[in-house]
Design goal:
The protein has 379 residues and is of the alpha+beta class. It has 3 domains: 7-115, Acyl-CoA dehydrogenase/oxidase, N-terminal domain (Butyryl-Coa Dehydrogenase, subunit A, domain 1); 121-229, Butyryl-CoA Dehydrogenase, subunit A, domain 2, CATH 2.40.110; 233-377, Butyryl-CoA Dehydrogenase, subunit A, domain 3 (Up-down Bundle). Helix content is 50%, strand content 16%. The chain contains 12 helices and 10 strands. It has helices at residues 7-24, 28-33, 39-47, 66-79, 81-91, 96-101, 104-115, 231-267, 279-307, 313-337, 348-358, 366-377, and strands spanning 121-124, 140-144, 147-158, 165-171, 181-187, 193-198, 209-220, 224-225, 269-270, 273-274. The chain has a 4-stranded mixed β-sheet with strand order 1-4-5-8. Strands 2-3-7-6 form a 4-stranded antiparallel β-sheet, with no helix packed on it. The structure holds flavin-adenine dinucleotide. The site of flavin-adenine dinucleotide (FAD) has 20 residues, from strand 1, strand 3 and helix 12.
Length: 379
């Protein structure tokens, strides 16, 4: 498959790269150190029409293809993986389900401001007792007149501290197992929704992660998303989509690891010559460049399948699995190439190593991706 980008895609890549160099690189260390959400960067991205980029213009999106969107996630993550993740989690998991499954009324009310970057979206599936095993969820929704009443706790919810619109998954039929879970749109001003613990993290520290507590949270029946009992199926399909975003985030980390390693290997002199003249360093760089190319191909392939309307579940899992494990491996090698300096705070490679780890965990761990891939190839 040929992934030569079109002129328009190249232009968008150049624009977002320039944007990141101007607005994100200068603050990347500070937002990591202070765990600060860089709203000012997102305000600019919204002005540029990026926040809902893969959705149609009639809903406030930019109407780009998914490959272009993945490339933008990659470029933002190359500068700051936390910002890249917030962008992809809002645009993918926080917005996508409303576009895919929402009624026209829900789209006008919720999707349009999400795509325009006027409101933030979040996806609330995980619970303290239900991570990989999503079907162990105990959050319940009980019908009461024209409303549903939701009770339960969601954990590790990205954008949880500031999101305006949450897609919440809750059990509407306890006897129906996986077919008894439904999805709801819950807004932050709902008195039944409270933000609990704000988590402090190893990496992607500018992304905000929180617990969400739903206590007698009443939502109108019109805010059920999709069909009753279809929640888990919708969640899994949304995660397929989201995994391309995480793969792209990992590709951005890999590219940054290579950028930094090339720079340092040519500058650092030991034994009267740049360390990059040593074969041991060249081999690390060769492996890094090869895995970067493979990860990018897998990611762009999955995105292209989605753009073509073809099945892409297995390919999205393969891309996420390979790219995230390669990002972790080579972020560590990038620190190695930087020696003791790479271990110091403020060095980009130190941040890359901390940021890379999460790509092996969220939106399905590496083990979960292997289950999906095996399930698809061993049919
Ligand atoms: C920073 C961050 C942001 C997140 N954002 C969101 C969000 O926005 N929305 C949301 O809903 N969730 C979010 N999550 C949750 C995330 O998707 C889960 O953490 C992840 O799916 C794993 O679940 P768990 O942490 O409960 O681990 P567990 O499921 O408890 O897994 C623990 C270990 O056991 C392994 N394991 C579990 N079951 C099996 C099995 N059957 N076979 C082999 N190995 C297995 C896992 O792979 C892992 O290694 C986020 C998590 C983090 C850390």
């Amino acid at each position: 498959m040929d992934f030569r980008l079109t002129e328009e895609q190249e232009l968008i890549r150049a624009n977002i790269r320039e944007f990141c160099q101007q607005y994100l690189d200068p603050i990347a260390v500070e937002i990591d150190e202070n765990s600060r959400h860089p709203q000012e960067v997102f305000d600019r991205l919204a002005e540029m029409g990026f926040m809902g980029m893969p959705y149609p213009q009639e809903y406030g999106g930019a109407g780009t293809d998914f490959l272009t969107y993945a490339m933008v996630v990659e470029e933002i993550s190359r500068s700051c993986a936390g910002t890249g993740f917030t962008f992809s989690c809002h645009t993918g998991l926080g917005t996508g389900p409303i576009y895919e499954y929402g009624t026209e009324e829900q789209k006008q009310k919720y999707l349009v401001p999400l795509c325009k970057g006027q409101k933030w979206g979040a996806f609330a599936l995980t619970e303290p007792g239900a991570g990989t095993d999503v079907n162990a969820a105990t959050t319940v929704a009980v019908a009461d007149g024209d409303e549903w009443v939701i009770n339960g706790t969601k954990t590790f919810i990205s954008q949880g501290t500031f999101a305006d619109i949450f897609i919440v998954f809750a059990r509407t039929d306890p006897a129906a197992g996986p077919k008894g879970i439904s999805a709801f749109i819950v807004t932050k001003d709902n008195p039944g929704l409270k933000v609990g613990e704000h988590f402090r993290k190893m990496g992607i520290r500018c992304s905000q992660t929180a617990e969400i507590i739903l206590k007698d949270c009443r939502v109108p029946r019109s805010d059920m998303l999709g069909k009753e009992g279809n929640g888990l199926r919708m969640a899994m399909a949304s995660l397929d989509n989201g995994r391309i975003g995480i793969a792209a985030q990992a590709v951005g980390i890999l590219q940054a690891a290579l950028d930094e390693s090339l720079k340092y290997a040519s500058q650092r002199i030991q034994f009267n010559k740049p360390i990059g003249r040593q074969q041991a360093i060249q081999w690390m760089i060769a492996d890094m460049a090869t895995d970067l190319a493979a990860a990018r191909h897998l990611t762009y392939h999955a995105a292209t399948l989605k753009d073509q309307g073809l099945p892409y579940t297995k390919e999205a899992s393969m891309a996420k699995l390979f790219a995230s494990e390669a990002a972790m491996r080579h972020a560590s090698k990038a620190v190695q190439i930087h020696g003791g300096y790479g271990y110091m705070k403020g060095q980009k490679v130190e941040r890359l190593l901390r940021d890379a780890k999460i790509t092996e965990i969220y939106e399905g761990t590496s083990e979960a991706q292997r289950m999906v891939i095996a399930g698809n190839v061993m049919r």
